[in-house]
Amino acid sequence: MTQRSWTRRQFIRTGTGVAATAAATKFTLLQPRPLWASPQGVAASDRVRFAFIGTGVRGCELLDATLRVPGVECVAVCDLYDSRHIAAQEAVKKNVPATRNYKEILDRKDVDAVFVATADHQHRRVFIDACAAGKDVYCEKPMSHTVEDGFAMIDAAQKANRIVQIGSQRVSSILYAHAKEIYNSGKLGDVYCIEAYWDRNSPSGAWVYPIPPDASEQTIDWNAFLNGASKRPFSPERFFRWRCFTDYGSGLAGDLFVHLISGIHFITGTNTVARRAQSTGGLFHFKDGREFPDLIETFYDYPNFRVYLRCNLNNDQGEFICFYGTKGTLIIKGSHLTYTPQDTTPQPESYSIFGWPAKLRNEYLEKFQADHPLPGALNTKVEEETEVFGVPKDYSDVVDHQANFFNAVRSRKKTVENEEFGNNAALGCHLANYSYFKETAAMWDPAGKKIKG
Ligand SMILES: NC(=O)c1ccc[n+]([C@@H]2O[C@H](COP(=O)([O-])OP(=O)(O)OC[C@H]3O[C@@H](n4cnc5c(N)ncnc54)[C@H](O)[C@@H]3O)[C@@H](O)[C@H]2O)c1
Fold it and tell me: Which residue's CA is the closest to the ligand 1 atom numbered 39?
């Protein structure tokens, strides 16, 4: 090996003769909060009675999760499609009353809180009506379908003094709480660059959901679904695959960016909107009449860092968030978090000095060594310990998120993912879509509460 091909570490090791490195990986299983791991009793007076509005795929998933939260009871469900009444009753394992008309639920005095798990374009109307009826609201992400929706929803919640939580459950995850601890500890140094993606490669991942055989205008209230969107004849494709269409959904940004943005905002303690977003992408594979791209990439400018997000429906890389710091790197991938420190002990410059005569190079190295005396003999080992953290197999951040909501309903203390947090995350999605469709940078105007091109 010639000196030129030495790595920095080999160079200093040989140069100083004493420094040594050790690399290791330590694995820690994070412990769930006791709330749902070992359900404690909840006084009957503290029991929260809730109802569901929208019991499709997500509604049923959420209903199932409520069975693991102590001290809560589902008393009614609502959906525009009759078969979903049955699906909801099966999910909650109880024959609760079911209706197509959510106003019947809001009129009930014994309902403390509602879950809104409708398609995105219905969030605003149901949320505002629920707040006005005095119900606390757990509203699925993305909170809003348009910029104006979000601010109207904030006004409604605050005017009626309601507890609100938006449904990006990673904000309540023990994995994300640990990532936030590492971020706040300073172990990452300064973080100027954050990268996150969520890639999936299947028809289901691209929302090509099958149409149930009993779907018809008799079993579905199509006009109620449209809710002010352009009038059209009954379309089961639009009803079941609403995410593909701008009238009802928010594309990959609203479906998946919103989780990444919420996670990044939570970990970094950001509660604002990016100043600027610039998107690119395209519709390459799923050319089935959809209006949103199957690949979107967006760069965001935040005051203290920059963020790159991507969703690609043509590759299966999964979900990933990475914080690149000056002292370390933190990666969340699936159910694991990895922290890798960087060795930041001073090193002599070891590239350009090989273009110097040996005499000058040696003088430089001697001076460097004199200026940076080595630590004592027992402290010469440079520890480079990668730490990996995981969650138990049956851990559910959805259950933790619900528990946080129900606790807030009891304590009347605002949730972390409250209406302002949810609105800021949703605005990030609207910026991405605006930039993609208008083919321009999207600038956020905080005073005017609007996006400018
Ligand atoms: N947090 C998450 O990880 C997560 C996961 C999936 C979906 N979501 C969100 O949940 C929401 C629902 O998604 P989904 O996949 O369950 O969609 P879905 O189409 O399966 O279900 C939505 C249901 O809402 C019903 N609905 C619409 N308007 C209604 C109204 N006015 N009154 C009563 N019911 C109404 C429809 O009939 C439909 O059955 C979306 O906002 C989505 O973004 C969140």
Answer: 56
